[in-house]
Design a protein that fits this description.
This protein has 277 residues and is an alpha/beta fold. The chain folds into two domains: 186 residues, P-loop containing nucleotide triphosphate hydrolases (Rossmann fold, 3-Layer(aba) Sandwich), CATH 3.40.50.300; 57 residues. It contains nine helices and nine strands. The strands form two sheets. Strands 2-3-1-4-5-9-7 form a seven-stranded mixed sheet, sandwiched between helices. It starts with a helix and ends in an 8-residue tail after the last helix.
């Protein structure tokens, strides 16, 4: 039962997909990346910042990893009440995400807001820094990575030799990828980065994976009942006094499997005991 409960997270990922929030400032290329990852135009793309006002969700699979992609509204301070609601939903998507893609437009100078957003994302979930619009002329880079070799794809960065450039010291395990959603360049590297964060797991036989909250709750109740029964046996309680805990465990297992096993199993367990005296 303990091993079965340990499959809850994996089962939920397989059924629902890893929630992947695509975040960044307005016009960073979030909707373009969503469309490129899906292979079709799901979200509206324009050059006008703030086009996306609400979250847009769609499922896809990258390198065997099921994802629930969430395109979000651009994060910025705004007085527009509708856009403000979109920003709130974007932040909620970040808080609930299992993976965050932080997009920074490489054709524009990076801003403090970009780095604050990146730090926030890293504190919430596994994060990938994605430099976008690699097909456009690159803007002057305002910072360099401590290790430029970590940047994959089409974007170039300054080296540590340029002492006039402040450095962004990313924590270990934060991939950095440069892409162009328009040309598709670098998307294979983004897929590889996702696969590295969520390595493919061995297949599990049917029926040995919990995929929803109801199954998890039933398995947990069964395990708790078994633990109580074992503790009572260790304390010297007679087996016939354990009937309530055993029945609760069997009922929970029946809910888990969809089968009625109570009479069959309890009959075998208590065949040698006179229950009720």
């Amino acid at each position: 039962l303990s091993a079965l409960l340990a499959t809850c997270g994996r089962g939920r990922r397989l059924r629902e997909g890893v929630p992947c929030a695509i975040v960044g400032r307005p016009n960073a290329g979030k909707s373009s990346l969503l469309n490129a990852m899906l292979g079709w135009d799901r979200a509206i793309v324009t050059d006008v910042p703030g086009t996306t006002r609400d979250t847009v969700e769609e499922r896809c699979e990258l390198e065997g990893v099921p994802l629930r992609l969430i395109d979000t509204a651009g994060l910025r301070d705004t007085d527009d009440p509708v856009e403000k609601l979109g920003v709130e939903r974007s932040r909620k998507a970040m808080e609930e995400a299992g993976l965050i893609l932080v997009l920074i437009d490489a054709s524009r100078p990076a801003q403090d807001e970009d780095f604050l957003l990146l730090q926030e994302a890293i504190s919430l979930a596994p994060t990938i820094l994605v430099w976008t619009k690699g097909d456009l002329p690159a803007a002057p880079v305002l910072f360099a990575l401590q290790d430029p070799a970590r940047l994959s794809g089409v974007i170039s960065v300054l080296t540590k030799a340029d002492e006039s450039t402040p450095f962004l010291d990313l924590p270990e395990g934060v991939p950095v990828v440069g892409i162009s959603a328009r040309t598709g360049q670098g998307l294979d590297l983004l897929e590889a980065a996702v696969a590295e964060l969520f390595p493919r797991e061995e297949s599990v036989p049917y029926g040995q994976l919990l995929t929803n909250a109801r199954q998890e709750e039933a398995a947990r109740r069964a395990l708790e009942s078994v633990h109580r029964a074992r503790e009572a046996l260790g304390a010297g309680v007679t087996p016939d006094a354990l009937l309530t805990d055993v029945e609760e465990a069997i009922t929970a297992l029946g809910e888990l499997t969809g089968q009625s096993v109570r009479e069959d199993v309890t009959g075998r367990i208590f065949a040698k005991f006179c229950v009720g005296k």
